[in-house]
Amino acid sequence: MLIATIDAGTSNTRVYLWQDTTILAEAQMPIGVRHTAIDRHNKKLTAAVRDTLREAARKAGVTVDEIACILGAGMLTSNVGLKEIPHLAAPISLDALSHAIVPCHLPEICPQVIHLIPGIKNMNDMSFTDETIGHMDIMRGEETEAAAILQCFPSVEHMVLILPGSHNKYIAVSNGDTICGCLTTLAGELLHAMTFDTILASSTAQSYAEHYDAEAFQRGVVCRRQSGFGHAAFMARILDLFHEATPNVVQNYLLGILLADDLIALRKSHLFPNLSEAVFIIAGNPLMQAAYKTLLASENYSTRSLDQDTMCALSGRGAIALARRASLFREEYA
């Protein structure tokens, strides 16, 4: 059975074409929802989804008309996406999420229905007050990645899923398949800003770390705890000037500051009252996984890492898992 999964973010649109659960082809375009926000219409995004879908089909040697099921996730369901679909309120099980998938007819893209997966928010609007504003958070796309991850750990009940990126996402999971909400930080964007757009750019050589340095990372963790974020960040320049730290050391040090700051936020969040009882499931590249393992092991937290093969097309794998729960596929595949 031919399946297409579409994922759009801020800057990119990506399509995978699958034969059941095997990837046949991939295509992407550097157009995302930021173009909708800038242009105040979604014509570029619509064209990007259409053309990327056609390109993936061409690479697989098929036509778009031959695709049996098309699934969409991520920012496609936002107010700057293809069709705005309200966030679902957590806690929500994967079964409930799967049955909230919305079929949309978008003939300007393809003749088939596109099944769009909603995002999740931490609470319903009635619960949102001045007192609870700090409890609110949102995700679009990460809930679909979570569906893929949870398939890999069926025996674990309480988890914190770690999804690093421009915005680090920490997703609370209970009972093995219920998403309780998330906590988001700007860690990825802050690392980019410090690396390229501050006085620290000379210390980082305007490049990210090439390999993991546990000592430098741990130094950043300790400095953040002792000195606060701002001073700890400036200390990267001191390490460069007076300690002859290499750009790779400085980058690992900055990563330590940022992830230590994230952990402080996790400990203060109402979503994660019993972190010591949860298993942290770590996504990301090998360097990021090693950094999180160092941070969490120093606090005696339990961790597991996703292998790199599993992380390939994570959103697509999750979309297919949710579609199967919703019985969107023919009987011979489901």
Automatic annotation (TrEMBL):
<protein>
    <recommendedName>
        <fullName>2-dehydro-3-deoxygalactonokinase</fullName>
    </recommendedName>
</protein>
<dbReference type="InterPro" id="IPR042258">
    <property type="entry name" value="DGOK_N"/>
</dbReference>
<dbReference type="GO" id="GO:0034194">
    <property type="term" value="P:D-galactonate catabolic process"/>
</dbReference>
<dbReference type="GO" id="GO:0008671">
    <property type="term" value="F:2-dehydro-3-deoxygalactonokinase activity"/>
</dbReference>
<dbReference type="InterPro" id="IPR042257">
    <property type="entry name" value="DGOK_C"/>
</dbReference>
<dbReference type="InterPro" id="IPR043129">
    <property type="entry name" value="ATPase_NBD"/>
</dbReference>
<dbReference type="InterPro" id="IPR007729">
    <property type="entry name" value="DGOK"/>
</dbReference>
<dbReference type="Pfam" id="PF05035">
    <property type="entry name" value="DGOK"/>
</dbReference>
